[in-house]
Specification:
Layout: E1 2-5, E2 18-20, H1 23-30, E3 36-38, H2 41-73, E4 77-83, H3 95-104, E5 114-115, E6 123-132, E7 135-147, H4 149-175, H5 177-181, H6 183-199
Parallel strand pairs: 4-7
Antiparallel strand pairs: 1-2, 1-3, 5-6, 6-7
């Protein structure tokens, strides 16, 4: 018995395939469940017409995808990202940033069809844009980084230097203290000489 499948059936065939099955399987399972219909001459003609129309539509879709792929293959992107002093990017560069950059160039591409592994460092990469099951475009992506932290680290040592100089200036003041203590001893030595004169 010939059956035209109306949907994919595992182990039997795919949608619109004409398959031969046992009469009981076709009448008791495939037809009642809507998975297939009897492949009569009229049904076959209808199927052939549908396949022609679908083929034309699929050909147009593929042609449009190929035309867009050619345009995308001529594009190259440069994405600037902020990074730490070690050059590791904060977060990552991925398909979201690629879609945004393509949008700026006039390409409305869904980020879901863009394949790019998360980029963590600067370098040259390639984003794959899957426009059709048989058509894909390759877009070169250059990732550059902007590092802010090294500038902050250079300012810190400049502030510490004046503090060290002050400590060095205070240290000699402590060494002069013993010189001041010697003067009272001289005054005490002269005091008895005055007392001797008064006694005379």
């Amino acid at each position: 018995m010939e059956i035209i499948l109306k949907e994919d059936v595992i182990g039997l065939g795919y949608k619109n395939d004409i398959v031969n099955v046992k009469a009981g399987y076709g009448r008791n399972f495939l037809i009642p469940t809507g998975k297939g219909v009897i492949a009569s001459e009229s049904a076959k003609k209808v199927l052939a017409e549908e396949l022609k129309q679908k083929a034309v539509k699929l050909a147009k879709i593929k042609a449009e995808a190929e035309a867009l792929a050619e345009k995308l293959n001529a594009v190259s992107l440069t994405i600037n990202a902020k990074a730490s002093s070690t050059g590791v990017i904060y977060g990552s560069v991925n398909n979201v940033q690629v879609a945004e950059e393509l949008q700026k160039l006039g390409f409305d591409i869904d980020r879901k069809i863009i394949a790019l592994k998360d980029v963590k460092t600067a370098g040259e990469y390639v984003a794959i844009v899957k426009l059709h099951k048989e058509v894909a475009a390759q877009v070169p992506v250059t990732v550059t980084v902007e590092m802010d932290k090294p500038e902050v680290q250079e300012e810190a040592p400049v502030e510490k230097k004046p503090r060290k100089a002050k400590k060095e200036e205070e240290a000699p003041a402590e060494e002069e203290a013993p010189v001041v203590e010697e003067t009272p001893e001289v005054e005490e030595a002269e005091a008895p000489a005055e007392e001797e004169k008064t006694e005379e």
